Queue: 2 jobs
Job 1
Amino acid sequence: MNKSNKILKDSAAVRWLVLVLVSSLMFATYYFQDFFSPLRELMETDLGINSEEFGRVIGLTTIANMFGMIIIGGIILDKWGIRLAGLAFGGLATLGGIITALASMGYFGDDKSSVLAGLIVGRILFGSGLEVVCVVVTRTIVKWFKGYELALAMAINMGFGRLGSALAIAISLDIAGVTVSPAVVFAATLIGLSLIFFVVYLFFDIKMDKQIKAIKAAGQVKGEEAIIAGVEQEEEADEDFKFSDLIKLATNKSFIYIALLCVAFYSAVFPFIQYAPDLLVNKFGFSYVLPDSATVVAFGSEALGSSLVFVVIFIFALSVTLIPNSLKGKSAKRLSVLIIVGVFAVVVYLVRDTLGVWLVNGPKTASLIPLGTIIFTPIFGSYVDKKGKAASLMILGALLLIFAHLSLSVFQSPFLAYMGLLSLGIAFSLVPAAMWPSVAKIVAENRLGTAYASMFTVQNWGLGAFFWGIGALLYKVNPQVVQAISEMRESLLAQGLTSGEVADKIKLLQLEGSLPYYDYTWPILMLVACGVISIFLAFKLKQADKEQGYGLELPSGQKPE
Ligand SMILES: NCCCC[C@H](NC(=O)[C@@H](N)CCCCN)C(=O)O
């Protein structure tokens, strides 16, 4: 390549800097999506928002996307381009964040209905920006990484989102303290900061576009340079949203199965994550506070032991997958696994007290689900690239999902709860790693934009229903708990206690056994149905692939004969 024809994306340092700048939007929006998760109980004790209302706040976040916002956003992105669309939808998400924060601070009124209405309006605006931001970021990564490390960049970008979710679940309650609003203000500030990072990115984007224009104007664009400089135009032509494409997709059996699988699978994962900390606290006796020796003692040594076994199994799974097969010979690999597990087991033993306290904390333990996927998704992704078996891995993922939700609903054992969380984490890595590249095999490249937009739209139908549905069912099957907590809250407030003190007192009363806990059996058992539907759809997908010959079971780049 002629040196004078080099453009910004040819510099690895600039490319990766761009990835960090735009992925910050992904980090912040995923954070904002999930930060309410550990605050479920605090919202009830601090703001009087019960589980059904909590479900409404979370569920309505997706409402605009359920009614075509992603498709509208895609069309706007095609017309306005990355810069304006990013600013518009990133700005919308930020505005939603600000309104949610102001509502939590009582800016629109202190009474429950004003707070609830403000939270809902804020979340609706945030949700309207969220998914389109995800599409804008993906398009930006394609613009900068096509011809370079595209798959890796996408996996790292997804990792930023997962890190946002994990941190949101792990630290929001610590930020909140005894009232909800500090956690909301912090989460909204993160989106604002990420929008500033996006504005910084715009300088690189403008500069590269100018370089491409100059190269073209100079008439120097030939051969390899033509491909590089023409990337943006090529992608814009490729990825334009067309309704005619939608009709073609809707008549493709394999696409229908994978789109429905996307709905069933994600409905059992993202909504579950919103309730996971509260489930662990209410059903398995985990704590909300950290460190609280009283809670740890109440939790019992059996659970502490199980949690440590959970960590060792996690490390074992990690080392088996991470140790490269290039270590020739099974015994060499086995020995390395043994050494790693042995060393970690000793470390785990030495830090058992701290670790034990962390692993009996609901939010911290639940945050391990998205955290684990940061490591596992790229590993499974590279397995799918090299060995194929995508449809079979989706069947396996759905099976693990069923095991996870059964062990978290019908059984009461903390050990099974840890195993359930582990298998949910593996399923949450396995299915996305196999699903998204499979879409690219089923759908022609020039219809991929339309395919993702329509899949995200139907996915949001499921998410909206289950975000709200879990909370609503929890409310329905626990009338006596709702009443007892609400009466206690009213009476403590009447005694002059602050909302923070009320929250603390209610927690204490639950620990002492004077106030009941929520029963999560039915709301989580309902998710087992999603797992069963997922397995059925994954089988149908495998069958359809045999008929239609997309090669989902083959390694990347290999076509069926
Ligand atoms: N290239 C497509 C990657 C999709 C990743 C996938 N994201 C979604 O499905 C979004 N529609 C949902 C965003 C909700 C954020 N909590 C993922 O697995 O995250």
Job 2
Amino acid sequence: MNRLLVLVRHGQSDWNLKNLFTGWKDPDLTELGVEEAVEAGRRLKALGLQFDVAFTSNLVRAQRTCTLLLREIGQPGIETFEDEALNERDYGELAGLNKDDARARWGEDQVHIWRRSYDVQPPGGESLKDTVARVLPYYMREILPRVMRGERVLVAAHGNSLRALVMVLDGLTPETIPSMELATGIPLVYRLKADTTVEDKKVLAA
Ligand SMILES: O=C(O)[C@@H](CO)OP(=O)(O)O
């Protein structure tokens, strides 16, 4: 059985380019972001991968990435579910601030803790732990059962909502997750075992 699960972070957004904390704000893709989404499709196509269903967030950068990728692999319009459970981590009061300005104001270490620690919340926002607490139930309820039925599943989402999933799939811990980064537009191709753990993982980097 297939049990194919592909995770892809959206292509570069306007706010990635401007180095702004984004969270639940809704900027579109840049030209490079569009190209990254198309390139992700090309890499999946080169492996002959096709999908039965796709999941994305309710933010435009992930939705467009999903649409562009599916068009590139010749599957526009397959069943696609949009849900805020897959949204980026909410960056609270940091949203819209420049990351370098934040480092100058609060210090490199504090900003790194807000961005990459497991359980420290940025002011007014979600920690990765909070993000896991909303992404994981959605994965268990909506995504995993389809993978287990042999459907080939695409998830186009965000750096931290996907770090939440990768943490669980790869068995990372609060100590090891801070060094885990997800590049824009690079598909992670998982095959799962019948017991829902990972049989095989490929990172489709250049
Ligand atoms: O700003 C954000 O929403 C995220 C992703 O772009 O940033 P970070 O990598 O700092 O978690």
